[in-house]
Amino acid sequence: MPHVITQSCCNDGSCVFACPVNCIHPSPDEPGYATSEMLYIDPVACVDCGACVSACPVGAIVPDSKLDLKQLPFVEINASFYPERPAGVKLPPTSKLAAVLPAAAVSAQHEPLTVAIVGSGPAAMYAADELLVQQNVRVNIFEKLPTPYGLVRAGVAPDHQHTKQVTRLFDRVTADRRFGFFLNVEIGNHLSHAELLQHHHAVLYAVGAPNDRRLNIEGMGLPGTGTATELVAWINGHPEYSSLPVDLSHERVVIVGNGNVALDVARVLTADPDELARTDIADHALKAFEKSAVREVVIAARRGPAHSAFTLPELIGLTATAEVVLDAEDHRLVQQDLATVSDALTRNKLEILHALGDSSSPASGPRIRLAYQLTPRRILGEAHATGVEFDVSGTDEVRRIDAGLVLTSIGYRGKAIRDLPFDESAAVVPNEEGRVIDPETGRPVVGAYVAGWIKRGPTGFIGTNKSDSLQTIRALVADFNEGRLTAPVAKPAALRKLVAQRQPAVVDSAGWRAIDAAEIARGGEDGRPRVKFTDVADMLAVAATAPQPPTRGRRLLARLRR
Ligand code: NAP
């Protein structure tokens, strides 16, 4: 029985390197890897050893005999990535093993390489992992919240618990004795870039793209308007969004843009609250959803069905869990696209859209309507949003859709980092393979690096950051080995002292473990994976109860006593 990769594939490629017969593609060294929506197992070449299952950090790989109903479409999706062959015929072997990208080997002749990483999301954690596979390295992570893991904690939808399993991998990284957490510490506020460089050879920024792209049309900003990413942060209990006003008293919500974030939000807005109650959704969001009047979420895209921004795995997941419909004219657009589009992936999406029900049929519960060719003109309403007015592409028609909540979901946007150059148009830090480049001189800024969305823009999946971070770490380590980095002037203990002076409420690894354990315990009472703290003061109170590792003096005393 071959194995099958399913919806929660994170694209980090760990399975590729674990596979003894090289039957998972595209591998990170192959063209198409960076833009692939998921990875695929060749069912003919798979020897069913299960090595990929253990390697996958998000539990996305399942033997085909154990797939549940919702996962069955992935059998065909995995197989269709490979050319059709007569039964049992294998592809010509390229190699027994996928080409592993060479590790970033830290030269042994130097003092330990010390790296500060700013941010603690997937790009940061993959970078730390890549560094700590070497002997001669120390890594400190600085994060402005008291809790780590960035969008895995605050961005992944609560009904995608599989995806959140990647934190187990991150927990292993943080358990390394050469790793230090400085949580609740904001770089640019408590400490500067220059101060970090006094204590480290290099500073790597993996701060993501914290802002939303904004839609500048009349009426945005009215009560009842907002962005999908803010709503996701609210749903996930991000402390800066826990008091976001979210009006669910109207029966329709409109989301502008149809990427995976829009799908996540629509799915959660129409989900059964009893299902959500089994997840780690923030309590305030769960309470609001229990009272929600929302009966329909319209996801409005400005282009046609063939240009849908959501990915095929997410569309399959959506249609398996929610009632999704199209208007008759959108069904016609799907048919038109099916007649002209030849690309297999897009055709797969179109076939699924084609099979969806019609919006004229009665709804059995809250449902999602995918709508196309609608460019937003203005938000309707005076004191509160009452709907959206759209131009219908290719016609003179103006269409109005009533709604009490209008969310834009048109992508994230990177934010300038103090003391580093910034490319305003691309909203990234200018860089070459992760080395920050000064646009004035065209030369690298010594000791400054980037990884993740602030390096390449807000695209890809959690695991896309693994090869992205590896590229940056290889550049950083090469610079260290070549003596291009400046050695830190201060001893490690001086860093702890400085941070404690600037931010006495710093949370270390023990503090985070205490918060983590307390949240899991709170969840256990109700059979939930965790109940999150959404208030920084509560997090800090729990972190303060963490047992502190003994100081050097106390360790010495204990040894003498023994
Ligand atoms: P996205 O995939 O880039 O989608 C943005 C959407 O906004 C597109 O439909 C785009 O339409 C539309 N848009 C952009 N500007 C617009 C404008 N001025 N007016 C109207 N529509 C506009 O962004 P996202 O959904 O925020 O996702 C970001 C990344 O995170 C993606 O790589 C996504 O796959 C990933 N992600 C993955 C998951 C998952 O795997 N479960 C979940 C969440 C996010 P056009 O195409 O016409 O420009």
From TrEMBL:
Q: Which Gene3D superfamilies does the UniProt entry name for this protein?
A: 3.30.70.20, FAD/NAD(P)-binding domain, NAD(P)-binding Rossmann-like Domain
Which reactions fall under this protein's catalytic activity? Answer: 2 reduced [2Fe-2S]-[ferredoxin] + NADP(+) + H(+) = 2 oxidized [2Fe-2S]-[ferredoxin] + NADPH
Task: Give the EC number.
Answer: 1.18.1.2
Keywords assigned by UniProt? FAD, Flavoprotein, Iron, Iron-sulfur, Metal-binding, NADP, Oxidoreductase
Q: Where is the 4Fe-4S ferredoxin-type domain?
A: 1-29, 37-66
Looking up InterPro entries in the UniProt record yields: 4Fe4S_Fe-S-bd, 4Fe4S_Fe_S_CS, FAD/NAD-bd_sf, FAD/NAD-binding_dom, Ferredox_Rdtase
| UniProt GO MF annotations | ferredoxin-NADP+ reductase activity; iron-sulfur cluster binding; metal ion binding
Cofactors: FAD
Q: Does the keyword ATP-binding apply?
A: no
Q: Which domain of life is it from?
A: Bacteria
What is this protein identified as?
ferredoxin--NADP(+) reductase
* Organism from which the protein derives: Mycobacterium vicinigordonae
